[in-house]
C-alpha cells in the first residue's frame, strides 16, 4: 500500500510550518512590497491576546487555510497552535532556516527505506522535469537567472541559518542533481496536494470548515514564495499543478463510483492515496490516456522516456486504483473536468449566459484564447480589453503573450467601446488636433493635472465631442465589473486562482470587479494577481485599499505620464484628484510601473500589451519590470 508521502513525520511538520510562514509573509507583502523594505522587516503584528486582530491573519483558523493542510499532512493537532504562533512571530527569518534544514535532513530509518525513498523522489523529480520541459516549448522560456535577481531580498542569508535550504541544486561529481533537489519536488507536490484536498475539519471538531473548496489564491501565492525560498523555478510548480489536477480528477472519479459505500474519512483517504507515488505512476503509466485530453503533445513526448522508470511504481497503488486513474483521464473533457473537480458550476466560463443583466449591459461573453485548455491547468487568466476599433481588437493585444495559464477573453459592450475609441481616433486625425500635437499643446494638460475649467477652449470642445460616448462607456464598464464579480463568486472558473488583467476601460472593469468583491465581503481567496494598464480610475487611496485586499499576490498599476488623451477624456472632477492611468498610486502594496518611454499615446497599448506583460515577469514573486529600448516615435 502506498504511503501518502515520502517524507517523515518531522519533515512533514517542517513543510507545514514553512507553508504557514509563507502564508504570513505573503499577507504582509499585500501592504509592504518586497524591495521597499527588507523581507524581514515586519509590519506591526497583532498582540497574542487581541482576538479580533488575530482572526485577520491568514494563518488563523477563521480563514481555513492552514489547519486543513496540517491535517492532511497528519501532523498532531496538538501542535497546530504552535505552528500558527510561529508563523506570526517577528523572528520568522530564523524559523525559516531551521525548518528548511529539517526538511532536507534524512531520517535514520535504514538503508533500504532510504533507497526506496530516494527512488520515489527521483521518479517524481524526473516527471516534473519532463513536464516542465514540455511546458517551456509552448510558453515563454523562464530565464536562467529568474530567481537570482534581488536575491538579497528574497533569499535566506546563510549567516542566519537559511543557507542550506535556499541554495540552488547541488551537483554531484557525476554531474547529476543532488537528493536535496529531488526532495524539493516532493515537498512542493505534497503541499499543493494538501492545499487542494477537500478536508472536512468540522467532523472532528478541529476547527472551522473550509469556506470555499478548491485551490485558494492565497495558497498559490504562498507556494510561489516557498518555491522562491527553495530556489525552484515556477514552471516546475506549474508542472506539479497539472499532475495534481490529474490526480484530483482520478480521485473525483473514484469517489463518484464509490459514493454511498464509504465514510467521508474513507473518501479523504482515497484522495490521499494518490500521493507522490500515485502522481509518478499517473504521469508515466497512463501516458497515452492523458495525452488524449489532458496533456499537450510536447508534454506527452517528454514522458515517453520516463515510462521504463515509472512503470515499476504501478503495483504500489494497486491495479484497481491505477485503472480508475486511467478511466478518469481517458473519459473526461479536459479542463471542464478539472474545473468541476475544483468547484466549477455548469459549463464554465465559455458557457456563461448571464441570467441577471446589470443595468443596460447587452454584451458580456467569455472566449477562449491560446492552447492551454483541456490540459488540467489549475489557474485561470481573464483578459479585458477596453480600447478597440474592431471586435478583433478584443483578442489581438493578448495573442502574443505566452503563459501557462488557462486564458479567457472577456468581450463586453463592443458597440460602445468601439464607438468611443473611434471617436477619439477621428478627433486625433483631424487637422486641428494634428496641429496642436505638433505644437506640444497637449502636454500642458498633464503638466500639473489642472482643472478642466482652466483648459483652453479648443481642448474643452474636443472633450465635449468625445464626452457623451465616453460617459456611456464608463457607466457600462462599472456595470461589467460587477457582472465579472458575480461570475467569480458563482465559481464558473472553478475554484481556481484567477489573474485579472485589463487595459484602458478594461482596467476599470477589473477595478470595479475587485471593489464589488470587497463590498460583498469574505472573497479574499479568489484573485491571485491583478494588472491594470492605462486605467481610467481615480488614484484615491480609500478606493484602492479595499481592492488591494482582494488580490492575494501582485497588484500592478501601469501608467504613462504622457497619456494626455486619457486626461482629456477623463477630465472631470476625478482629474483634479489624480488618475491612475497617468501617475503612480500612493497605496501600500500597489506596484507602480511607469511605461512613459514606451507609450506614445493611449492607443499604443493595443500593440504594447505583450511587451509590457513580458517585462513585468508576472511569474516572479517579487516586483519586476525590465525597461527596454523605447519604440521610435
TrEMBL record:
Matches recorded under InterPro entries: AB_hydrolase_fold (IPR029058), DUF726 (IPR007941)
Region spans: Disordered: 155-178
Family annotation (PANTHER family): OS10G0512100 PROTEIN, TRANSMEMBRANE AND COILED-COIL DOMAIN-CONTAINING PROTEIN 4 TMCO4
Pfam families according to UniProt: DUF726 (PF05277)
Family per similarity comment: Belongs to the TMCO4 family.
Biased composition (Low complexity): 166-176
Classification via Gene3D superfamilies: alpha/beta hydrolase
Domain of life: Eukaryota
Membrane topology: Multi-pass membrane protein
Compartments (UniProt record): Membrane
A single GO cellular-component term on record: membrane
SUPFAM superfamilies reported for this sequence: alpha/beta-Hydrolases
Keyword annotations of the record: Membrane, Transmembrane, Transmembrane helix
Listed name of the protein: DUF726 domain-containing protein
